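User: Can you fold this complex?
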Amino acid sequence: MITPDKQTRSQLIEIQKQKDICLEGNILKLFKINNDKEFNDYLEYCNTKDKESRKKRIAITKQVQEQNIKLSNLVDENQQIMTDLQNKITEVEESKLTFEVQNRELNEWKKENLELTEKLQIEMLNAQSAKSEALKAKEMAENDLDLLQKKNQTELISTIVKVALYVIIGVGIITTGVYIFTLIMGKDTQVISSAWSNIFGILLTNAFSIVGTIMGIKYASENKQ
Amino acid sequence: MIDSILLVDDEDLFHLVFEDACSLLDISLSLKSVSSSDEAAAMFKKWFDEKTPQYRPECVFVDLNIIGSSFDGIELIRKINFEYGNHVVIGIISSSNESEEQSKALQAGAQFWIIKSDEIEPRLEEFKKDYDGYKDRTAPFKIYK
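Assistant: Here's the predicted assembly.
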């Protein structure tokens, strides 16, 4: 315990009165004074002042502590946000890489498609050209066939006409010969003359009928085409 | 009143709060604060090796997790109790309230566990009342919530 001498005691009290400078802290607890009301009042004043200042300081310190805790929490939150952001950036970068790869693949496919399209166009042109050639060939074949048919028809008609004419001429010659022979021989020509004229008339009628039929068939076949 | 107290805590602001609270409550005459368990262990080792127990604090308050230290508060208590001669009232002052940690502290020789919060004064006042029991080793392990 501390017991100050009279001069120290008086100086301490005077300084407090003049400048309000007091002893403070735990040293105050070491003073023990008996029967000195003035110095005890001084110590009590110092103690009260010390406690008030400590109360203020403790309040401020606690406030700072709270703010520090809040700040620390905010830092943690910021850190979390930064981590999340970094993760998102990584995800976006990965997505970007994926998109780039997909884009590259799409471009390759597009290129392949263009090449295929070009090939298809070439093949299409070839096919069109082949088709037109085939059509031409078909047309030519049809024309050839038509010509052949016409030729065959004409040949057939000419054969028929020839045969018919040969038959008519033959029959005409034979009946005429028989009629001439009968006249030369002096035989009765009444029957044969009428027969000859009948046969000749029939032959001429048949000949014109044949020619008419042939012409009709030819005309009908031309219209059908 | 406790003659001398040592506070081991990494939070400097808490040093001020604790010092002011102890002063306001007339808990101690002198108070020293250190920020790491290594520093505290070195101090106790020195007093133990030099056989100067008179310099040791009467009571030690140790934080549980001391950032920047080689070991935590429980290990420091174990070292003080089992390696550096004991003879101090020692306990934890921490914001943690985990029973597992409290059991470990008890095994290491902690005598009390004060939960650190904004209102530390009522707990210190209660501790002050129980202090004599801790000093003569009759008070059981207590948690100040």
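The domain at 2-144 of chain B is CATH 3.40.50.2300 (Rossmann fold). Chain B has a mean pLDDT of 92.
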